[in-house]
Design a protein that fits this description.
With 610 residues, this protein is mostly helical. It has 26 helices and no strands. Its main location: membrane.
Length: 610
């Protein structure tokens, strides 16, 4: 990169990031004076900001580089991590979100303290903090630094060593991200995420389009034809036993992992808890599922394009996406691309930092040490803890460059220490009334020991290694732990059944398109798998097989049928169900039996806990 191009890239990058920072500041400067404003954006987030923030919180530079590298190396089977997230997203939007908003919760541990006890609250906070501080947060910054280094020759540009480049990038990204989270609160994070998300969608979609033109020698359609007719096995998303994501894991452990991420991971669900009402919260959650369907296009197809041009000649699979960027991205877009790339990294970091500080302030400091703390002091405690956590992360993240080979596989497996027990506790908590708090504590301790023994322990201690994909281990332990909790609930049940208390602070009328949009989303997930399957683009004898169009039309017909029924009959029943969830026993006694035809979709319930 010439000196002139370098300065142009840096200046346009700084300009874009400056605009994002200014808009975020202007839109959020008056919303951080109290705890609801700081931690939940004043409960004023609409569906657009929720969806945009969820998108960029979920996507990162590591995925841009890593998923394209996996597609270059094997096939599209790794898209399952992204596309099948639609299933837990729908469960979150339709079932769990009305519970969270109806209970007026700020954090997931707070919800669990109401369902079980303060001990369970502390257990989950500890699990979250250990995962955030020592795994998720440092790995986000380090992987982002690696992505920037691969896409831009930072050592060569600035004349510094590789190690120095890692430290500079990590601290640069970390400080910017921390500033949003610590001083701006959730609303500043959500706004900046949305603006960067728009840039990511535009640039991310433009790259494969330019890649097709490059592959086709200047003709877009020729590039598409080349991709779909040669090496068609690269477009297969149906993973076999030898792939890192076998197809069977989609219906077992992957659902558990994605359900944890989208329905109980604090730094994801906190955006939805800041929704201005249930309808906007559902809209934001479900729309984010449609965004996930774009992942194969701009996070995997580019890797396949590079394979068609270079074969297996690249030194590292992670060079696939940087190679394509260097070939096709115009210089005038390089600065915006760098800004969006950095935005994707620090958006994930600032979201995690904001949520960790929120949990410490509300679930540790306020709950255990100072229940009557003022909003001003609570915000200050959160900011100091966020600053401390940021500093710890900034020192830990660069040290990952000295870790042994296989670090990323280790990190991905390490999340299994906390995601499975937390989602098991959440689901048992909302689906049962008599399971006691002791059951949660038993399975938490059991899981940590059992998971370690299966993944590493037996090999390290006894020389015996379990030959089983860790995603299947998720499903096995989840089933065992739910069974343990149900057995304890049978042997030693709660003395009184748990009753959900409605304390809704926002309007609890469902989004009128929630059911139909969910059905459409599931249909599009099925169609995506049909497109990238042996009867779709992975068909060897032609562009697609004779079964392709009948399968697509069949799925479309089923979706239209169920969408019609949802609008005609199910919407009112669903709204009635949500309304009944907001009625406490005291209210039901006062009102008498709920009349079936009161059309609760048009009624606002604002019951308070007595």
């Amino acid at each position: 990169m010439s000196a002139g191009n370098l300065w142009f890239t840096l200046l346009t990058c700084a300009l874009f990031m400056g605009i994002v920072a200014w808009v975020s500041y202007v839109k959020s400067k008056n919303d951080v004076s109290d705890s609801a404003g700081y931690f939940l954006a004043g409960r004023g987030l609409n569906g657009t900001f929720i969806a945009g923030s969820l998108l960029l919180t979920n996507l990162s530079a590591e995925q841009l580089v890593g998923l394209n590298g996996q597609a270059y190396r094997t096939n599209l089977s790794n898209m399952a991590w992204e596309v099948t997230a639609a299933i837990p997203i729908i469960i979150m939007g339709l079932y769990l979100l009305p519970r969270y908003l109806g209970g007026n919760f700020t954090t997931l541990p707070e919800f669990l303290s109401k369902r079980f006890d303060e001990g369970v609250r502390l257990y989950t906070v500890i699990l979250f903090m250990l995962g955030y501080v020592f795994v998720t947060s440092p790995s986000m910054l380090y992987s982002g630094a690696i992505a920037v280094l691969k896409l831009f020759d930072v050592p060569g540009i600035f004349g510094i060593s590789y190690e120095q480049s890692i430290w500079v990038i990590v601290w640069g990204i970390g400080i910017i991200g921390a500033a949003y989270a610590i001083f701006g609160g959730l609303k500043a994070v959500a706004i900046s995420d949305t603006l960067n998300g728009v840039g990511l969608l535009v640039i991310g979609t433009l790259v494969p389009i330019l890649g097709f033109i490059w592959l086709g020698g200047g003709n877009f359609l020729d590039g598409v034809k080349e991709l779909s007719t040669n090496h068609s096995d690269k477009l297969n998303a149906i993973g076999g036993p030898e792939d890192s994501v076998p197809f069977g894991t989609i219906f077992t452990g992957m659902i558990i992992a994605n359900l944890f991420y989208w329905a109980s991971n604090q730094y994801v669900i906190q955006r939805t808890l800041g929704a201005q009402n249930l309808a906007e919260g559902q809209k934001g959650v479900i729309i984010s599922g449609f965004y996930k369907l774009l992942i194969p296009l701009f996070m995997m197809v580019p890797g396949v394009i590079v394979f068609h041009k270079y074969g297996n000649s690249l030194e590292s699979v992670d060079l696939a996406y940087p190679t394509l960027i260097a070939e096709v991205l115009p210089t005038w877009l390089s600065g915006i691309f760098l800004a969006v790339l950095l935005g994707a990294v620090f958006s994930s970091f600032n979201s995690l930092l904001n949520s960790a500080a929120t949990m410490f302030a509300l679930d540790v400091y306020k709950a255990r040490f100072n229940p009557k703390v003022s909003d001003k002091k609570l915000i200050m405690v959160s900011q100091w803890f966020g600053t401390l956590l940021a500093l710890i992360t900034l020192f830990i993240a660069p040290l990952l460059m000295y870790a042994p080979n296989g670090l990323w596989d280790l990190i991905r497996k390490f999340t299994g220490f906390f995601n499975v027990p937390i989602i098991a506790i959440v689901l048992v908590g909302v689906l049962t009334k008599y399971v006691p708090a002791i059951a949660c504590k038993v399975i938490t301790i059991f899981h940590v020991i059992a998971y370690y023994m299966i993944i590493w322990g037996t090999d390290q201690l006894f020389g015996f290694k379990w030959d089983i994909n860790f995603i299947y281990v998720y499903a096995i332990l989840f089933a065992v732990e739910v069974a343990i909790m149900l057995i304890i609930g049978t042997i030693k049940p709660r003395s009184t059944p748990f009753e959900f208390k409605s304390r809704a602070a926002v309007e609890m009328i469902p989004w009128k398109y929630a059911l139909s949009s969910s059905i459409l989303l599931l249909a599009l997930v099925s169609m995506t798998y049909i497109v990238f399957s042996p009867i779709g683009l992975a068909y060897a004898q032609s562009i697609v097989s004779p079964y392709f169009w009948p399968a697509i039309i069949g799925v479309a017909a089923i979706a239209v049928f169920f969408m019609f029924w949802s609008v005609k009959f199910w919407n009112t029943r669903y709204a009635d169900y949500v309304a009944k969830q907001q009625l406490n026993k005291e209210d039901i006694k006062k009102r008498g039996k709920l009349v079936p035809n009161i059309k609760p979709a048009f009624v606002k319930y604002t019951n308070k806990e007595v």
